[in-house]
């Protein structure tokens, strides 16, 4: 009996279909604005740190606030903004929550600093009369509220949630007995 040998195939194997890559999402403009705002505030606070170190002796004699406070608060807020900026620009899932917490913390810090530590001399008054708040406190309060509202609005938008991968990720409750 004759054995039948298979004929080797001369055709090349079919290439595998190309893998579907996920489309790269464009960063929403609001997220870009938030990142630029965080970079700006971080840079200003790092400049505050550097200037407090540079003019330490002068600040020690001039203000009632210690140069330690100026330097450490500048360093702290300057460094705190760096991971937040990185998270916003690199689509990290934790960035929106950190942005909300940092925005509220920075607004609270700003107003506590304004009320308790800053010196607001009363214009035209004699004898060192001081105000509790700066003369333009209504503008500053309105701007604070407007910026916090913009941050919340930007982070709650659907495009922002899609960008950070938080849409339809609600997990059903596990009802299996333990």
What percent of residues adopt helix (DSSP H or I)?
A: 55-70%
User: What is the approximate shape?
Assistant: elongated
What is the strand tally? 0
Write down the overall mean pLDDT. Answer: 84
N-to-C order of helices and strands: HHHHHH
Q: Could you say how many structural domains there are in total?
A: 1
**Main β-sheet description:** none
Strand content: under 5%
How would you characterize this protein structure?
The chain is mainly α and 178 residues long. It has helices at 29-54, 56-62, 67-89, 95-117, 137-156, 158-163. The chain has one domain (29-121, 130-163). The protein has six helices and no strands. The longest helix has 26 residues, at 29-54.
Keywords:
single chain; elongated; mainly alpha; 178 residues
Task: Briefly characterize the structure.
The chain is mainly alpha-helical.
Describe how the helices and strands are arranged.
Elements: H1 29-54, H2 56-62, H3 67-89, H4 95-117, H5 137-156, H6 158-163
Helix pairs in contact: 1-3, 3-4, 4-5
């Amino acid at each position: 009996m004759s054995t039948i040998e298979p004929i080797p195939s001369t055709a090349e194997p079919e290439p595998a279909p190309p893998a579907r890559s996920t489309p790269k999402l464009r960063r929403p403009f609001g997220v870009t604005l938030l990142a630029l705002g965080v970079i700006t505030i971080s840079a200003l606070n790092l400049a505050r740190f550097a200037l407090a170190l540079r003019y330490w002796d002068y600040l020690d004699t001039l203000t009632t606030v210690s140069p330690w406070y100026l330097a450490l608060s500048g360093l702290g807020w300057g460094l705190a903004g760096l991971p937040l900026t990185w998270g916003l620009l690199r689509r990290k899932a934790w960035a929106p929550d950190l942005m909300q917490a940092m925005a509220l913390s920075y607004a609270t810090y700003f107003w506590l600093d304004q009320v308790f530590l800053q010196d607001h001399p009363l214009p035209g008054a004699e004898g060192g009369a001081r105000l509790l708040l700066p003369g333009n406190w209504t503008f500053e309060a309105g701007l604070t509220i407007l910026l916090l509202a913009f941050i919340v609005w930007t982070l709650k938008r659907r495009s922002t949630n899609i960008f950070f991968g938080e849409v339809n990720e609600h997990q059903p409750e596990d009802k299996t007995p333990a």
